[in-house]
Amino acid sequence: MNISQITGIFFSPTGTTKQVTEWIAERIAADKEAGWLDLTDAISSRPDYTFNEHELAVVGVPVYGGRVPETARERLKKIYGKRTPVVLIVTYGNRAYEDALLELSDILKEQGFLPAAAAAVVTEHNIAHVYGTGRPDEKDKKEMTAFAEAVKEKLKHTAGSTKLPELSIKGNRPYRLYATLPLKISVTSACEGCGICIRKCPVQAISRTDPKVTDETACITCMRCIALCPKHARKLGTLVTLAIRQKLKRVCTDRKDAEFIL
Ligand SMILES: Cc1cc2nc3c(=O)[nH]c(=O)nc-3n(C[C@H](O)[C@H](O)[C@H](O)COP(=O)(O)O)c2cc1C
């Protein structure tokens, strides 16, 4: 198969999914220049995108509660393929990815894409940073590079996009129910009102006039405002953080390896 253009598409509030998607897409693209489509920012009127059968899409989303984040799902629904091969990527914080990769595959098939390969990559947990700390690490990066090489080979030997065999992706249908986390972000007096959090919130949950006010019904607890605040003024409560860390201890402590499906 001759691929004319490779586009990395990602939803990545705290940047690790972007990093993983770029790593893999750039290595598949090799000497070609990859294009990028960032679905993270809130844009008032998001255009539709359509990819053709000679292109390759590399799509990355983080795992939230074993699922594709609803915001990412909504935004992917504006992206169409015409039997376009796609590489699916989920990133997760060393707990589990559960139904997320299967769900991502289902969403993109519905949008006209043909899954060619898939990966579930472990990252530092962006709520409980003590888990998956420093991931993806050197071992993960080596494996992601080998995966990109294998994808290139696979596509080279695929006569036409119609010939891609079904991938064997773990997960269940119906997908597990997504339970929102009871997280509340507080703002300390260190906030100088610079407005980065207002501009970068993926769902415009922070008041345009007062960054100390967050609409908790709109907030998706993605941790982006906490990660981006230059004054470190936005925080999760210490007790909540400790409780989450404790709750995740049993399921997050052992190292999980990235998984690659071809
Ligand atoms: C709301 C929320 C739910 C999460 N749920 C899971 C999960 O079910 N399993 C897991 O291993 N990590 C989970 N994580 C960790 C993220 O999947 C991980 O940190 C991800 O790489 C973040 O991607 P980003 O940096 O692109 O935003 C969750 C994080 C958030 C913010």
UniProtKB/TrEMBL annotation:
Coiled coil: none annotated. Keywords: 4Fe-4S, Iron, Iron-sulfur, Metal-binding. Gene3D superfamilies: 3.30.70.20, 3.40.50.360. Residues 6-152 form the Flavodoxin-like domain. Its cofactor is [4Fe-4S] cluster. It comes from the Bacteria. Ferredoxins are iron-sulfur proteins that transfer electrons in a wide variety of metabolic reactions. This is Ferredoxin. It comes from Ventrimonas faecis.
